[in-house]
């Protein structure tokens, strides 16, 4: 790959510099939660002074996900209006300011407000980065960078989960200062990224495609399919980072370093899953890969719910992480190629909303299933069986459509 000169009539070609900026930008999404979960117990000891505030504390980790779910579709619309690059850089700056704010605040309500603003920035960043992958690359290269996006998120998440846990040994406020690091990304984004442009003929063709497809089930189906998979898959995926710290404390593991390391292990397993995705996609096809990832998530959760030692927890989160690593690339592989240029940002916005709605709903659903007795392991088991049932449904769909295990037919 090389970068074309910015001369009249020359078409720009995205290369490694653009990929680096987009992939590092994408990785900011995982930092939203990974550095917070290990220090929630310490935050509770200082900030929680009533049952009402105890109920609000989990929103420090999950509140940004709600903001992303609500704002991501609007972020897609905004990126069409003010430009992908402009919105991405503005959102990164807001991300830094809102990210570091809890280190300086003393009220739980103020911290929650900053986390919601943080989530708005995350929504714009994730939507713009994924849309730019669709803008800059096509075909096999597009699939490659979709997969590399998950790899980058897993690597950065693993690193910062450990860093956040280690910083949390000093103070629960210390990890929030790590949110200053994305300031280093702004010059890279400014120098390497450009706003995708389209020729008038392309604009007209995309408009015709959108008008023709407004009521076409064949176009709506990929958005619905990818969105539902993202929703249920992310509910299952987010159980580990939210519930594992409490389960570890229950079995006697209280070190934030060990808690952070367990989550980092899960994210490294997610990296392994994303690296295995191309093989699974070629051999099984998209629908059976959906079944596989859901089964892996379920087995990991069932193992986590019955774990009685730190080693067993590490095995459980590793199995679970491999399934999680298959989720996003497999969902996007069936979505991005079917979106027109004009609809791409909005389609990605809807997908991102479903992804993070799953994150937000995860602790609420597990809490509801656990009931007043707070039987968290039993609730995790119940949702694991939901994942198994969904996996069976995907397998039956694959069999009914006689899907061949090739990317062209997946």
Rg of Cα set: 21 Å
Distance between the termini: 27 Å
Helix share, percent: over 70%
User: Number of DSSP helices?
Assistant: 15
Classify the fold: give the CATH topology. Answer: Growth Hormone, Chain: A
Overall tally of domains: 1
Number of strands: 0
Averaging pLDDT over every residue, what do you get? Answer: 83
Corresponding CATH architecture: Up-down Bundle
Please, what is the CATH homologous superfamily?
Answer: MFS general substrate transporter like domains
Order of helices and strands: HHHHHHHHHHHHHHH
Biggest sheet character: none
- Alpha-beta content class: mainly alpha
Model regions low in confidence, pLDDT < 50 over at least 5 residues: 1-10, 199-217, 403-410
Strand content: under 5%
Shape: globular
CATH class category = Mainly Alpha
Structure in words:
Keywords: Membrane, Transmembrane, Transmembrane helix, Transport. The chain crosses the membrane at residues 20-41, 53-75, 87-105, 111-133, 145-164, 176-194, 215-239, 259-280, 292-311, 317-336, 348-370, 376-397. This is MFS-type drug efflux transporter P55. Residues 18-401 form the Major facilitator superfamily (MFS) profile domain. The protein is mainly α and 410 residues long. It has one domain: Up-down Bundle (Growth Hormone, Chain: A). It has 15 helices and no strands. It has helices at 16-34, 40-47, 51-56, 59-82, 84-100, 108-136, 139-168, 185-192, 200-213, 217-250, 256-284, 286-305, 310-333, 341-370, 376-400. α4 (59-82) packs antiparallel against α5, α10 (217-250) runs antiparallel to α11 and α11 packs antiparallel against α12 (286-305). Residues 1-10, 199-217 and 403-410 have low confidence and may be disordered.
């Amino acid at each position: 790959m090389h970068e074309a000169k910015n001369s009249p009539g020359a078409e720009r070609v995205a290369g490694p510099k653009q990929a680096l900026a987009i992939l590092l930008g994408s990785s900011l999404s995982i930092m939203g939660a990974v550095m917070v979960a290990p220090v929630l117990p310490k935050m509770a000891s200082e900030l929680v002074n009533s049952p009402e505030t105890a109920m609000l504390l989990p929103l420090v980790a999950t509140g940004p996900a709600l903001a992303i779910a609500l704002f991501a579709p609007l972020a897609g619309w905004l990126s069409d209006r003010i430009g992908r690059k402009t919105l991405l850089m503005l959102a990164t700056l807001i991300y830094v300011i809102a990210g570091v704010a809890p280190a300086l605040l003393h009220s739980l309500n103020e911290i929650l407000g900053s986390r919601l603003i943080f989530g708005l920035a995350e929504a714009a960043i994730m939507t713009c980065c994924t849309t730019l992958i669709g803008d800059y690359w096509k075909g096999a290269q597009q699939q490659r960078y979709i997969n590399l996006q998950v790899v980058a998120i897993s690597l950065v998440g693993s690193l910062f989960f450990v860093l956040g846990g280690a910083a949390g040994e000093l103070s629960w406020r210390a990890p929030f200062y790590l949110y200053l690091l994305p300031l280093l990304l702004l010059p890279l984004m400014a120098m390497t990224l450009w706003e995708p442009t389209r020729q008038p003929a392309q604009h007209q063709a995309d408009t015709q495609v959108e008008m023709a497809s407004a009521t076409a089930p064949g176009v709506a189906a990929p958005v619905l399919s990818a969105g539902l998979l993202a929703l249920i898959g992310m509910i299952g995926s987010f159980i580990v980072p939210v519930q594992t710290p409490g389960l570890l404390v229950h079995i006697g593991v209280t070190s934030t370093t060990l808690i952070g390391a367990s989550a980092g292990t899960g994210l490294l397993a997610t990296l392994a899953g994303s690296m295995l995705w191309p093989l699974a996609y070629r051999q099984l096809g998209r629908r059976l890969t959906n079944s596989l990832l859901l089964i892996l998530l379920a087995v990991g959760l069932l193992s986590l719910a019955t774990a009685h030692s730190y080693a067993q927890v590490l095995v459980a989160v590793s199995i679970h992480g491999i399934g999680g690593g298959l989720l996003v690339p497999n969902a996007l592989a069936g979505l991005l190629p079917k979106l027109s240029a004009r609809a791409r940002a909005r389609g990605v916005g809807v997908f991102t909303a479903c992804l993070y709605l799953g994150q937000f709903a995860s602790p609420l659903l597990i809490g509801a299933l656990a009931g007043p007795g707070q039987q968290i392991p039993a609730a995790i088991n119940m949702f694991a069986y939901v994942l198994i049932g969904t996996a069976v449904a995907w397998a039956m769909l694959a069999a009914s459509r006689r899907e061949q295990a090739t990317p062209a037919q997946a």
